[in-house]
Amino acid sequence: MTATHPTATATATAGAGRWTLWRFVLRRLLSGALVLLAVSAIVFAATGAAAGDAASVSLGGEADPAAIAARRAELGLDRPALVRYGGWLLGVLHGDLGRSYVSGTPVADLLCARAGNSLVLAGVTVALLVPVSLGLGVWAGLRAGGLADRVVALVTLSLVSLPEFVTGTVLVLLLAVELDWLPAVSVLGPGQQLADRPQILVLPVVTLLVACVAHNARLVRAGVVAVSAGDAVATARLNGVPEHRVVLRYVLPAAIPPVIPLLARYLSLLVGGALVAETLFGYPGLASMLVQASAGRDVPTVQAAALTVAAVTVLVNLLGDLLGVLVDPLRRMPQ
Amino acid sequence: MKATDAVQPPTRSGRRRPVAAVVLVLLVLLTLCGPWLAPENPLVGVGVPFAPADGAHLLGTDHLGADVLSRVLAGGRTLVLLSVVILLAAYLLGTAAGMLAAFRGGWAATLTMRMADVLMGLPPLVLIAVIATGTGPGVTGVAISVVAVMLPDITRVVRAATVQILAHDYVEVAVARGESTAAVLFREVLPNLVLTLAADASVRFAGAAYAVATAGFLGLGAQPPTPDWGLMIMENQGGLSLQPLAVLAPAAMLLVLLLAAGRLADSLGFAERARRRGFRTAVRKPAPGRAAPTGPGAAPDTVAAVRGLRLRVAESGRETVRGIDLTVSQGTVVALIGDSGSGKTSTALALLGHTAPGLERVAGTAHLFGIALDGLSRRELARHRARTVGYVAQDPRTSLPMNLRVAEQITEQLRAAGVPAPERRPRAEEALRRVALPYDAAFLARRPFQLSGGQLQRLAMAVALARDPRLLVLDEPTSALDPENTARLLVEVVELCRKAGTAVLLISHDLAAVARSADTVVMVREGRVVRTGPAAEVLVETGPTGRGPAEPGTTSVDEEKVGPVEPVPGLLAAEPAGAARLSVAGLTVERPGAGQVLAGVELTVPAGGRLCVVGPSGSGKSTLLRSMAGLVEPTGGQVALAGEVLAASVGERTALQRRRLQLVPQNPYDSLNPRHTVARIVGRPMRQFALVPPDRVAEETLDLVRRIGLTESHLSCRPAALSGGERQRVALARALAARPDVLLCDEITSALDRSTALAVLEVLDRISRELGVALVVVTHDHLVVEQLGGELAEVAQGRLVHTVVTGPA
After folding, report:
1. Structural domains of chain A, with CATH
2. What mean pLDDT value characterizes chain B?
């Protein structure tokens, strides 16, 4: 029975909580690194088949076998796969991502030029996404079953089913073709930076928002509804706790923290969405680079872009989990 | 917010499903037949590029001059077929992997978890791009990647569902009966898995179609000149201003397909979330002419009263409360008792002005301290409650919010009651002291998950008592957690209330607790008050069974259904009586971590004999039964049936041995496979052991079902359509269908209320005599001992202490 030494036990619990938190961070970091290693192996293995033909692909259809063999040797493709994987991984760790099969420029340079643009696109989207979906989800969740909730549910459900390229196309048709307010494509001229033409961000951001807000708001709403229908909230109401205190003290603190890691998980949707949005608008980002490289079977570029995307995804999930644990006392309890 | 509003959502989401389903079916048909309906060859140009719509080309032409209508009609087939193929492949692999993971556990489970982790780092579309680099663009790469994306998740779902199904008692019964692994898998697990899988697949279809279409758009899927909606949207982007139809037409088709699929999935799987309304308070029903703001005008010491309360289930219209009057007077303790589902909790909540979600009030008024609750706004009602009432919910593990610290749990409610801030903390400490909890700073800073079950229960009481309510409502405080400690706490709390002059409304089905604390007892049955009076009087009349005297003109549900039982000759009487006797010698069971659960149990049950084993929970009663049934392997000792020593594990026993020893598990809500009919459940042992020629199984099943007091109409029912008592009868019938010599009954009345338990015991008593079956009954319920009689033994310190031979046996 813990009641006999409450002080001692409480201190022990708090101490254990802190220790658990550090162990949790370490464990997640380690597993994140392992996931990346596994991803690198999958990426290398999956693209490996294409690497085999890269020599003939890069020389065009009817090259003579001797030239292909020479090209293979030049690209280092005559070595065993495991050796090539080891060499590639070592290079990645040193920042050497190889050269593009298509343009011959170092992949690291291509990546740097584009990663910044994608970061801006994702940053702006997330900065708008989180407050909008939290607000909408909470608002609808507190009115569960009411008219407002049903409207939000209907709209978000429709938007969830909507592929980004359909949303994007409709937006282009309306805002660029019909109204001519915004550029239909988000390309930059030679030497131009994003800061020179910030308006090209608008359509990709809105396209991404439309898809992701729907998902996230539904998630938040579900959390709020589940807590609102629970025993604790019912008991508080039956004891006459006023409604605003019920929301502030009983519903939100219980509903929001568990949703945070899930929101982070949904950010992988954002990555997929970015792939589509960047391709649709020709936005000079990492995702459109990946798609182009994949279609052109430019193996080193695909590998580098995929690995970068994976690293970012793992990191975001780690941060989401960490944030969830930090704001949710329940999850800090020692198991 | 009127109570009647609660009716709307279910009907709405119910209506939505067929519409989405019809749209989806039509669309899928259209896409599958589309290529034959296309007026032109979709693969070649038939006009100038990007020509607008005209009579020849209803939707114009695309970037190559091909007919858009023909391409749209032809362009959905690949999408739909590919999505279906992907789902089939993913579910086939996932179901196999998930079941394997559930059976094997260990590495298989770890592997699937890790697979999911890795794929989380590689978003689906990125994986498609990576795989397409290897395979080259095309549908094969897309199919492989989408299956790979879905596989870990499906495996996880299947594994979780299988693990859950395996934990059910009906699986254990099948194992104890010696069903093969394949039979367990295909008969017990798979039918229950199918529903989960169907709901899951409906959700994933939209996901698969979305991925396939997007891959097409990105140029990684179907290649030109194949007609494909996603690809068409990309190809014709350049002509968006000239010929928007070339993009909009495939976009619209895609949209309708995904929307209908998503909608259907949503209404199948997730609708009930939207359906379950938030906990709405305040039934504000204008009751013109009757709204007397000064209370019912009766005795001045009435603190709370409901008059003529009638409630019904919103969806079915079935009345659950049929005209109840209830009054609680100052300083008295009123107990509201009755079987579960009799309407006692709904009545108590009505007293606080609340109608539970899903119910609606047909008639009746509620007054709390002289104020008619119907006339109050939501805010006024909250204030009135906060200043007068303390409500303690049934289970403190769920009713105390996990995010609030002990001090906050109390101060938050003191705040609601208008206690000024500086007084809250001292009063919180005082409240904790009153319920004998620590009240130092460290304890006040804890959160509910850092407290023991007993502490939680005391805290829940402290929260309600802190603001000195004038009425304390305790909702089934004895049904959660450890019953003995709860009963003690209840007596303490009632004592506190008596001293403070607080009225108490106690809702319970625990008669012992009521007898110790209540002044007045109100007994409710089927939505009506059947008895009111001083506690001593009502409880004496009612007797120990809690069944109460039958009212003239009414019979209980169970009695109606049982009917007279005509003696059925044959069946089990054919078995030679005599010989078999069960004997256990030196039975010892150790559990890792828990030490010895049983330490040398000795027992003998003669043919047709009876043994009741009693003991507190956790004393090893169930373990004793389960080790006799071969489900728990003992560390020592042996079990012998009719002189034959039985193998420790059920798998090594002979079919005959398994048949002669049958187990009836504790919980009838868990021991019957929800996907099987009564006929199938009861008939199965006869088929398995080939006791009856296949063509006579139906007949024999009917005989047996009649003997245990059910009728022919029950044969086609699934367990969900049966009451708890009927289920337990079916469980008994299944065990008897194997023609056992010994029936092992594990707490078979614990999940039933008193009157139902009594009826089931009567059947067991009668039929075991008729068939000459020996009984070993484990229980902590004295009703069982009284009803069945026989030898009584108690488990104490892992041994069996034989006490007396009692009763009529």
Report:
1. 22-93 (no CATH), 107-327 (1.10.3720.10)
2. 80
